Amino acid sequence: MQCIPEVVVVAGERAVQGVSPDMLMEAMDAVTDGVVIVDTDSRIVYLNEAYTHILNVKKEKVLYRRMDEIEPGAVILDTLMDHKPRLHQFVEVRTRGKKILVNITPIFKEGVFCGAISVFKDITEITVVQRELEKTQRLSHSIFKALSTEKPSLPREFSHIIGEDPAFLRCLKMAEIVAPTDATVLIEGESGAGKEVFVQAIRSLSGKRSYPFVSMNCSAIPETLIESELFGYTSGSFTGASRGGKAGKFELADGGTIFLDEIGEMPLFMQSKLLRVLQSGEIQKIGSDKVQKVDVRVIAATNRNLKQMVEDGKFREDLYFRLNTFKIVIPPLRRRRKDILLLANHFLDIFSEKYHKHLSFSPGTAAVLQKSPWSGNVRQLESCVEYAVIVAGGSVILPEDLPDELLQGQSRDGYTAELPEKEQRAPSGQEQNVSPLRMDIQQIERERMREALEKAQGNKTKAMELLGISRRTFYKKYKLYGFSNDLYTK
C-alpha cells in the first residue's frame, strides 16, 4: 500500500515546516535505533541504515519482502492482526541471534489502517553483560561456600586424580568450585602436567555434563581451515566445500562444552572471531549471512604464558581477559615432590596388571624417580614407569631398568641420585675403588655370566634365559664385566 511512505512524509512535514521527504529519510538513517515499516500484507516498504547494522543484513536482501517469510514470529505481525501497539517489549530475533527492545505502532491514514512501524534498540550486549554478571554472582557464591568450609573435601568424581601437594590440591578445589557454573575457564600448565585431566574433572561436575563435549587442538589445525572447523560452512562457500555444508565445532557443542586446547596457538585473525562468540554467543558460518545463536561453555588450555604473549603483541588483550574469567595454573611435577612416588606407584599398579607382572621399586629406583627433573611432567613419569615395567627382568625394578635419557638427564639438569650401596655398580677396570663385599658380588655375577655363556655356547639369548634377566640388563652386565665379543659370538 502506498499510504505508508506518504504517512511518514506527511507526519514529518507537519512536525517541521520546510523539511523535504529526502531530508526526512536522511534523518531517519542518521538515528541509531532501527526503524522498519511494513504494509498490511507484512511487506517491508522502508527500513533505515541502523536496521541493517543491528541485524547484520543487507537492505536489498529484505526490502519489499514479506515479514512473515523473513521472521515468521515477528511481534509486528501481531500488530498487523489486531491494530494495537506494542510498547517496550523485549524480543529475540532468532534468525539473526539478536535481542532487541521494540516499540511497535499501528499506522492509520484518515482512519484507514495502513500498516505498522517498529522502532527498536539493540540490547544484545546488555543481555550478555547481565548474563556475565549472573555468572559472576553464582561463582562468588560458590567460592564463598567453599572457603567457609573448615575441612574442605574433594568430590568422588575427583577420586581418580592422584596428588597430595598443597598447591595441587588448591587447583583441584578451584576446579570443583567453578565446575557447576557455566563460567569460561582457562587452564595453564606445562605440557604433560595434566590439563586434560582437569578438563574432564570440571566436566564431570558441570550442569552440561550430559550434553555434547567437543574438543579441538588449535595447534593441530592449519590456519586456512581453523575458521571452518570452528564455525562450519555452507554448501558451495569455497572450492572443495562439501555438498550440504558442514557444522562447526561450536554448532556441534551447542548446549554443552567446547574444549580449546593450545589456545595460545590460535592465529590472531581468528582470535577476534572467537572473542565475538564469547561476548555474544553468536556464530556465522563461512558463506552465510545468517547469525546463529549457540549456548556453549568454553574451557581453554595452554602451555604458554598468555600474559607475556599479550605484551609481545601475539595474543589479543581483550580475548585474554575474556578467557581469564577463571584461571587455574597447574604446578609442574618438579614442584610437587611429594606426589612423584604416589604417581609412580599408581602407574606401577596399572602397568603391572596390564603386563601380568608383580613388581616393586627398589630404594635406588625410588631415589632416582624422586630426584629427577621431570621436564615432561606426569606424562613423562607415566611413560617411564611403563618402560621400566616392560624391561624389568625380576620382581624389583632397578635403576638400570629406567630409560637412559632419564639417568642422563639427571646430570644435565643438576640432579644426582645417590643409589644405595648394594645397587651401585663400578665401571669396568675400576674395581679397586669398590668395597670388598661388592667386589665379591661382582665376581660371582661375572662368573655366573661366564658359565651361562659357555653352557649356551655363546648364544646370548639362551644365556640371558638361563640367568633369568632381561636383555637390557644382560647387555649392561656384559659390557660392565668386559666380556669379549670375539670369544662369545653367535
How is this structure best described in words?
The protein has 490 residues and is of the alpha/beta class. The protein folds into four domains: 23-123, PAS domain (Beta-Lactamase, 2-Layer Sandwich), CATH 3.30.450; 149-329, 3-Layer(aba) Sandwich (Rossmann fold); 333-402, Helicase, Ruva Protein, domain 3, CATH 1.10.8.60; 439-481, Homeodomain-like (Arc Repressor Mutant, subunit A), CATH 1.10.10.60. The protein is built from 21 helices and 16 strands. It has helices at 3-15, 21-30, 49-54, 59-62, 67-70, 76-82, 124-147, 166-178, 195-205, 223-231, 249-252, 268-280, 306-311, 317-323, 337-354, 363-371, 377-391, 404-412, 436-455, 460-467, 471-480, and strands at 34-39, 44-47, 86-93, 98-109, 112-122, 185-188, 213-217, 232-233, 246-247, 257-261, 282-283, 292-293, 297-302, 326-329, 360-361, 396-397. A hairpin with an 8-residue loop joins β11 (282-283) and β12 (292-293). The longest helix is centred in the N-terminal third of the chain and has 24 residues, at 124-147. The termini are far apart. Residues 439-466 form a coiled coil. Residues 161-390 form the Sigma-54 factor interaction domain. InterPro entries: AAA+_ATPase, AAA_lid_NorR, Homeodomain-like_sf, HTH_Fis, P-loop_NTPase, PAS, PAS-like_dom_sf, Sigma_54_int. One of its GO terms (biological process) is regulation of DNA-templated transcription.
